[in-house]
UniProtKB/TrEMBL annotation:
InterPro entries: BglG_antiterminators, PTrfase/Anion_transptr, PTS_EIIA_type-2_dom, PTS_EIIB-like_sf, PTS_EIIB_2. This is Phosphoenolpyruvate-dependent sugar phosphotransferase system, EIIA 2. Residues 7-96 form the PTS EIIB type-2 domain. GO terms for molecular function: protein-N(PI)-phosphohistidine-sugar phosphotransferase activity. The keyword Transcription regulation applies. The keyword RNA-binding does not apply. Keywords: Transcription, Transcription regulation, Transferase. PANTHER family: CRYPTIC BETA-GLUCOSIDE BGL OPERON ANTITERMINATOR, TRANSCRIPTIONAL REGULATOR MTLR. GO terms for biological process: phosphoenolpyruvate-dependent sugar phosphotransferase system. Residues 117-255 form the PTS EIIA type-2 domain.
Length: 255
């Protein structure tokens, strides 16, 4: 998980120093993607600066706070770990969205480019949803990005694994999933886009539905590819136009 999006956590434990140390060690082992800022007692919480805290993990009930919190058993059972995991990925994607919005606001000049031109005609796909699942769609886009020289085959496998794990948090614009993996198997930045004729379930649980899947590959978080793509979609009613598109020519009207 990239540094800018790492959830910052404090741990509250009412079971003594030994249990606190054990809980911190287990959290660090099970969730290396979080940063544990401190382990404190409940009586210290009111005096702790929560400005840079994303999540509170506590072994005891707390008064309602503006910060997300999870109550867990000091020994961390499977249900506890799932609750923590869900919060971690939600926080990470919220941070990523805020980062993208800041980048958009900081842009002094916007280059008006059509969505079709931005992605490339040969990486735009329009499919019937019947008989297709999100894995099949991602594999097809991944194969085309691989042929373009953007990614290796492993990137597609990693992207599918990411959807299995993070699924719903990739849908930060309703109806559109933004699929990606880590930068290790990216050769050059690129993106592919598939619009379906009807919505399909997205992710392992199938509770989230999408009509469009965007697969993108960037080498680092400073790359503007995703920022510029979201910039196009944020203008006017471009999201509606994208979700209603039936052919590449329709995307020429999105800029």
């Amino acid at each position: 998980m990239q540094g800018a999006f790492v959830p910052e956590v404090i741990v509250i434990c009412g079971w003594g120093t030994g249990t606190s140390s054990l809980l911190k060690a287990r959290l660090s082992l099970q969730f290396p993607e979080i940063k544990i800022k401190a382990v404190i007692g409940k009586n210290q919480l009111d005096f702790y600066d929560l400005e840079q805290v994303d999540l509170i993990i506590s072994t005891i009930p707390l008064k309602e706070k503006k910060i997300k919190s999870v109550i867990v058993n000091p020994l961390l059972d499977l249900k506890d770990m799932q609750k923590i995991k869900d919060n971690i990925y939600q926080i990470s994607y919220e941070k990523e969205c805020r980062y993208l919005m800041r980048r958009l606001q900081d842009k002094k000049q916007e280059e008006r480019e059509t969505l079709a031109g931005f992605i490339g005609q040969d990486l735009l796909f329009f499919e019937e949803a019947a008989g297709k699942g999100w894995r099949q769609i991602i594999k097809k886009m991944g194969k085309h990005l691989e042929c373009r020289g953007c990614i290796s085959e492993q990137y597609t496998e990693d992207a599918i694994a990411s959807v299995d794990e993070w699924g719903p948090y990739m849908v930060f614009i309703p109806g559109i999933a933004f699929v990606h993996a880590g930068p290790e198997h990216v050769r050059i930045p690129g993106a592919a886009l598939t619009v379906l004729d009807q919505e399909i379930p997205f992710g392992e649980e199938g509770n989230t539905y999408v009509k469009c899947i965007v697969m993108f590959a960037v080498e680092d978080e400073g790359n503007r590819l995703l920022t510029d793509l979201v910039s196009i979609l944020e203008r006017g009613d471009n999201v509606r136009k994208l979700l209603e598109a039936e052919a590449a020519d329709d995307l020429q009207m999105i800029y």
